[in-house]
Every structure is written in C-alpha cells, then in structure tokens.
C-alpha cells in the first residue's frame, strides 16, 4: 500500500511517500514545498534512487502545492509511481487534537470540525494542517485520509500532571491544561529504544528527550505518556531556539507592564524572541551557538549551559516521578547530532544508575545506538526519530 504522508505548515508542505506493502516499509520519495503564497514558490523533490528535481514558480495555495507534488510523483523521469491510483491513503500530521483525539483516526466531517474548533488554541498549526486535508479532497477525491495528532500520545497523562493550579473554572470553560506535543516522535523513539535496549515497552520506565529547535522531554511509564515538559502550548518546559520555556509568569506580566506590551506582543516575545536567540542575540540555531561557545562568547556559554541543564533537570524530575528509570533516549536534530549535549545531560547521573559510555557517544550521529556501558543499570540510547513512518504506520493500520 503506497501512502502519502503530509505535514502542512502555514507556507510549506513536507511530504514522504512510503510503500507499506513491502516486507518492511520502503521510502520511495520525500520533499518539501516552500514559500506558498509568495511571489515565487519552491518545490524540492527527492526520489530514492533518482536525481532530485527542483521547481520554482508561484504557488498560491496548498492545493496548488499538493498538485505539484503529485505531478512530481508520477513524472516519467523523476517520479516513483506510475499513476495516482497507486496512492491508497494519505496520512496527515496535525499539531493539536485537544481532548478529542486520544489516537489517530480516519478523516470524517466530524473530525474536520473538531480540528477547526481547536484553531483558537493552535492558531499557527491547525489551520494549515486542515488545509492539507481539504486540498487532498480536491485533488484526490475518495482517497481515505488519516489524521495523526502530536497531542494524542499525551492523552494518557493523569490529571494530577496535566492540570494547572489555576481556578478550575478555566479548565471547565476553556480547557486550559497541559496537552504536550512531539507525541508522535516520543511514541516512536520510546518503542524503538526499548526494543534496542532489550526492554519490555509495556513494562518499563523510559525518558525520551526530543531536542531540536523546539524541544521536549517525556516520561513514558509502561508504554504510556505519564508526563511531558511542553504544556498548554509548545512554549513551556525546556529552553529552545526562540522559546523561553519554563518561566515565572509574574516576570512576564512585569515586563509587559513596564514595556506597555499587548498580550499579542508578549506572546510573540516569549515564542519568537526568547530562548537561546534572546539570551545571545546571535542565533536560534544551536550550531551557531556551539561555534560562539567554542570561541568563548560568555552569553553563548550561559545559553548553552542553561539549555543543557534544563534537559538534565527534567530527566531527574521524571526519574523521581516514575520511581526510577530504565532507559533515557535522545532524538531530534540536536539530540541525534550533539554528542556534547548528550554527555552533559548524562554526566553525574551515576547515582541513578547511569554509566555513560563517552567513547560510544563521541561522533555518534543520526543512527540508533546504545550510549551506555554494558554494566549500566540505566540504559542510554540515541534513536533517529521517524515521525513520517509512524504516521504511515497508523494510516496503514486504520485504512487496511
């Protein structure tokens, strides 16, 4: 079964085409459409075993972008399927499922309305995600679609962990609570990491660290999300590229009053001007921060150490919360590529049973690998996340 996986942003479309009928899943092509709605748009199409194809032209909307993707997939020279009839289902990444969706589901009118009802609490992502669903209805009418939600995995978090100590009326009226994000990635790497470490996924205490420009840590207890660092929005928890993470709310109201900032301006400041960018005034990219760190830039040193230390604090918190830990997993763009970050987080955790293997860690990038010594009571692993495969798997299982 050939499945098209879509991740639609406000001005972009990331995609993969995966054959799920093979003995094991087989990636056929991947690519990205960018600059949707601008004067010139871009399509970069990368078929497996063939030369990449690039196209530049105006792409006014998502429907046009998806049509260009489908044209590329069926092109005689750089295509990977003979006709669109081979696409048997489409899986969509959707950022926010609220309390409606504890698992992935086939798209219906009711599902679309519930996604639309969450625009208010996910204004940057859900409208674009739904636009992808509506566009497929136009260009591939009748093809089954499945929505896979970033928040679904975290719907098992108990109320004692997802509620805020605010007046309960705000939860009842507006559903203000912790939702968590990156759930598809946390679910994938926890399961794969458990298998690599020889653990029973359904009977293990696992901490997964998805570290990229956006970042979160999740406690996975006996196969289910038990707590996670992101909250009502992706802003909470770790220090990130441009997000401040955990902060005293009174500091924000104080700044807002002093600066005469609106709620929208405060939200923009916390989400887009904070994190390592705000601390350094250099960059939101950790590779740039690493270079400045090595050059002795004092603010880069503070920013990187703060970023790393916050991860370590959540690992300790979740180990305490679960009454121990069997496996710590690193993933994401930084998690899979920064040996320095992994060593920083795991150093000093010997009291928890972590015996970190610095030699195994050194230079390890983007592969599934155990990073702890054989005698370590707590295993440490690096797992290359594959959210698209997770989406394709859920789509395959639901449609089949």
Number of DSSP E strands: 14
- Side by side, the strands of the main sheet go 5-4-3-2-1-6-8-7
Note poorly predicted spans: none
User: Radius of gyration in whole Å, from Cα?
Assistant: 21 Å
Please indicate the percent range of residues in DSSP E strands (runs of 2 or more).
15-25%
Structure in words:
With 400 residues, the protein is an alpha/beta fold. The protein is 38% helix and 20% strand. The chain is built from 15 helices and 14 strands. The protein has helices at 62-74, 109-117, 126-139, 159-162, 168-174, 183-197, 249-259, 263-272, 275-280, 286-294, 298-322, 332-335, 339-346, 358-361, 387-399, and strands spanning 2-8, 13-19, 26-34, 41-47, 53-57, 87-94, 105-106, 145-149, 205-211, 215-221, 224-228, 327-331, 369-370, 379-382. The chain has an 8-stranded mixed sheet, with helices on both faces. A hairpin with a 6-residue loop joins strand 2 (13-19) and strand 3. The radius of gyration is 21 Å and the shape is globular.
